[in-house]
Amino acid sequence: MIGVFDSGIGGLTVLRSFLRDLPEYDYVYLGDNARTPYGNKSLDIIYEYTRQAVGFLFDQGCMLIILACNTASAKALRKIQQQWLPSYFPDRRVLGVVIPLAEAGVEVTRFGRIGVIGTRATIESKVYEQELEKLRGGLKVHGLACPLLVPLVEEGWVGKPETNMILKKYLQRLKDAKVDTLILGCTHYPFLQHDIERIMGKNCKILNGPDIVSQKLKDYLHRHPEIEGRVSRKGRITFFTTDDPGRFKLFGEKFLCQRIAGVEKVTLG
Fold this sequence. Notes:
Elements: E1 2-6, H1 12-21, E2 27-31, H2 43-59, E3 64-67, H3 70-75, H4 77-88, E4 93-95, H5 98-108, E5 113-118, H6 120-125, H7 127-135, E6 140-145, H8 149-154, H9 161-176, E7 181-185, H10 193-200, E8 205-206, H11 209-223, H12 225-228, E9 237-241, H13 245-256, E10 263-265
């Protein structure tokens, strides 16, 4: 199975792309809705929460886990890959979403002015600046923390006038900087993509993060048959949340446009 972990519902944007592009595999989705958002928490807490989630998904039988959460990818992924996995699960893999989006940003930028919006933890980590610099020197990267957006998405405020007003206020700084490419550095933000595109205008390319991550996963599985061959293929999806299963099920069915047989509530840690 392939595990997909997010601090809440944002990772469903990534899962939807996986189900479209790689429908044959089995998936386990875990949303830590009870403890979202991760972006305003300390480094130690983000790592511990992420480690708990990864351990839970491995216990479910996942061979490969995608940290759909940008904050977890920025703050916990490297330590998990370099220190935790070798000791406990050396034959399994955990991947993040930052590098695929950075690679896409470098590919599409016209003038080298790239904006990144994300949680406070993701932006303060400067992980996107670091990865973009590795790929291409001389870029002008403008990081912008947008801490209000995740709670607004989680509470179902997408499309409301108040949310659009907050988006306009956040994005004005990037418009003033004339960024030509914008990376949505949080998997909750694709829920707001149409509004972001409208506000930023036609001269700014808004990257479709879930589609990019999905294509990168397809490429990874092709290049790593030793992992791909151990992933089960029955087209099953299992959902877990740390908060209200009914609320998660209602939202998940509406967003994925398919019936969810059940959502199980779990406690991590």
